[in-house]
Specification:
There is one protein chain. The chain is of the alpha/beta class and 325 residues long. The chain contains eleven helices and nine strands. Strands 1, 2, 3, 4, 5, 6, 7, 8 and 9 form a nine-stranded mixed β-sheet that branches. β1, α1 and β2 form a beta-alpha-beta unit. The longest helix is centred in the last third of the chain and has 34 residues. The termini are far apart.
Length: 325
């Protein structure tokens, strides 16, 4: 089939209750007559009625775009996105999570931003939190772990070298930048089953960045992240933050030279240790009673442990490789 201008990929796992809201919002996108586009639902091995939901929408889909369904058995967000890249016919590919609701002009703003920034290999916009219940006081200090991004009204470059990057929850990538630089077998695959290790978004973006592509923030693209009450519970947030932090060392070492790696690991551990001590001095007993302070402490501790986690993972990988020879 002929290429089109823009593909929207929705990776989902057991998304039968969430998908309808996203698909309804995409049906309502405005000012899209000047380019061609499609929607692809990537079913990441769901065992609910996700396929039936998509089929019901396909029967009544709008004529200005197409809605396709793909099943990806290999579970993990990274694998779902790899499948989306292979299936997409668009030169631009947007990944929208199944709990993200885009504004009605999101697609148009995303399309024209790429035209005006040809060196942008990837870009994200403003992600606002749409909370089921009111978050706790000072939640803005940790809201970025829930992919919330409100970084002002001016477009600007992200800073990948310090891991300042857009989340994958509502990310647009240029297919050329992905296909030429992102490996087919990523190390970080996303949260699968009980494993909360994250970083798959950043791993992809760092590969693009190290190849010379720019990563941008576009403030005219607005989406709303649906955040249920359970995602504000302490157990969930601690697990989430731990997964986001344990991958820090791997990400910082991604393109580092061999002689740089011990230095980077030492800096990570020393910096995290200093921040943890300062945090304890500042909040003392509140770390046990204050949700935000506890989450921040988990970030410092897990960041400190990330070099050790990286070394353990490396040793295990090398051992498996040796045994398989």
């Amino acid at each position: 089939m002929n290429n089109i201008d823009f593909s929207i990929a929705i990776p989902t796992y057991n998304g039968e209750e969430r998908l309808p809201k996203v698909l309804e919002r995409l049906k309502q996108q405005i000012c899209t007559v000047y380019f061609t586009w499609e929607v692809i639902v990537i079913d990441n091995n769901s065992d609910d009625k996700t396929v039936e939901v998509v089929q019901s929408y396909q029967a009544n889909w709008v004529n200005t775009s197409s809605l396709r369904y793909c099943f990806e058995e290999k579970q993990g967000l990274a694998f779902a996105r790899q499948r989306a890249i292979k299936e997409a016919r668009g030169e631009l590919i947007a990944f929208i999570d199944d709990d993200i609701l885009p504004s009605l002009n999101w697609l148009t703003e995303a399309y024209y931003f790429a035209n005006n920034h040809p060196q942008a290999g990837a870009y994200g916009g403003q992600i606002h939190g749409d909370f089921e219940v009111k978050p706790p006081d000072n939640f803005e200090r940790i809201e970025s772990f829930l992919a919330i991004r409100e970084k002002g009204e001016e477009a600007h470059l992200y800073q990948p070298d310090i891991l300042s990057l857009p989340p994958g929850a509502a990310l647009v990538v240029r297919k050329q930048a992905w296909c030429e630089n992102v490996p087919d077998n990523p190390v970080l695959i996303g949260r699968v089953n009980e494993v909360m290790l994250a970083g798959e978004d950043y791993e992809t973006l760092l590969h693009m960045h190290h190849s010379g592509w720019e990563i941008w923030y576009n403030p005219t693209m607005h989406v709303y992240h649906q955040i249920p009450q359970k995602r504000l519970e302490k157990e969930y947030l601690i697990s989430l933050i731990r997964g986001c932090s344990l991958c820090i060392c791997y990400l910082r070492l991604l393109k580092a030279k061999s002689w740089q790696k011990p230095i980077i690991m030492a800096k990570i551990m020393l910096g995290s240790f200093k921040r943890a001590i300062s945090h304890i001095i500042k909040y003392q007993w509140q770390i046990k009673t204050d949700l935000v302070a506890a989450c921040e402490m988990e970030f410092f501790v897990s960041s400190f442990l990330s070099p050790l986690y990286f070394l353990r993972h490396t040793v295990r990988s090398n051992l498996r490789t040796s045994l398989n020879k």
